[in-house]
């Protein structure tokens, strides 16, 4: 067999191998048949922040529907509920009125009275939501009042302390960053913030118009200087 013939055969085999490789990539696709690995943390401490567990728990009381409104005992229960809601820094309180149970007029008035009482006890009106639930024909169905609070549980640290000198690898300890995540879980005021952000508050349209008006006129937009903030020591009141 001549040398040109051998070269043509080798080129043909190489082209066939390339075509087979390209067809395999086209049919299999990227990552076909393989489990997608979890993203590697950029820092050694980030792997611990993903191990903070946040669980939601309901805090609910049930109030009997009275035609005369909220009783004294129910008022005390609502006071305690609002106190726990403020301590938990929860998002909203839900008042659930029974539907399809006893007297719908009494249940409706009771639910409205409960909502008004919650607002009087310090819960902002936009954060007190009134809904209905199916009472399934129960004539004694109660008005449910409650909220959901969240608890953050951090990782357990100090379980494994390896000897870095034994491996001779320039790597961090496996526990590195664990205490940071545990402290975060223990100190955060509202664990729900780790799940979703809070709703933004409404803008102050009046203040915005005032500042923009002064800006267009070339006036100073900052607030006037407070004489009490000049650093002088005030005299004692006799």
What does this structure look like?
The model is unreliable at 231-238 (pLDDT under 50). The chain is built from seven helices and four strands. The protein starts with a helix and ends in a 21-residue tail after the last helix. The chain has helices at 3-28, 46-49, 72-88, 104-120, 164-167, 178-187, 205-217, and strands at 53-63, 93-99, 128-134, 143-153. A four-stranded mixed sheet has the order 1-4-2-3, with helices on one face. It has a domain at 57-150: OmpA-like domain (60s Ribosomal Protein L30, Chain: A). By secondary structure, the chain is α+β, with helices and mostly antiparallel strands. It is flat. This is Pilus assembly protein CpaD. Residues 1-26 form the signal peptide. Keywords: Signal. Residues 214-238 are annotated as: Disordered. Residues 214-228 have a biased composition (Basic and acidic residues).
């Amino acid at each position: 067999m001549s040398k040109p013939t051998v070269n043509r055969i080798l080129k043909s085999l190489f082209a066939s191998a390339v075509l087979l490789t390209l067809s395999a990539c086209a049919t299999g696709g990227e990552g076909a048949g393989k489990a997608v690995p979890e993203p590697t943390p950029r820092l050694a401490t980030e792997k611990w922040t993903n191990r903070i567990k946040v669980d939601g728990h309901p805090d609910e009381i049930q109030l009997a529907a009275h035609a005369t409104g909220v009783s004294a005992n129910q008022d005390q229960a609502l006071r305690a509920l609002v106190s726990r809601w403020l301590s938990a820094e929860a998002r909203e309180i839900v008042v659930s009125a029974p539907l399809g149970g006893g007297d719908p007029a009494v249940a409706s008035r009771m639910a409205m009275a409960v909502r008004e009482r919650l607002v009087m006890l310090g819960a902002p009106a936009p954060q007190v939501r009134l809904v209905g639930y199916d009472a399934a024909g129960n004539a004694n169905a109660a008005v449910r009042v409650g909220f959901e609070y969240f608890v953050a549980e951090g990782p357990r640290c100090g379980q494994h302390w390896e000897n870095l000198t034994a491996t001779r690898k320039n790597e961090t300890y496996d526990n590195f960053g664990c205490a940071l995540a545990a402290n975060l879980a223990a100190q955060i005021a509202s664990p729900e913030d780790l799940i979703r952000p809070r709703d933004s508050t409404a803008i102050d349209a009046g203040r915005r118009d005032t500042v923009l008006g002064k800006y267009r006129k070339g006036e100073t937009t900052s607030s006037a200087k407070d004489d009490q903030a000049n650093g002088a020591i005030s005299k004692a009141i006799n």
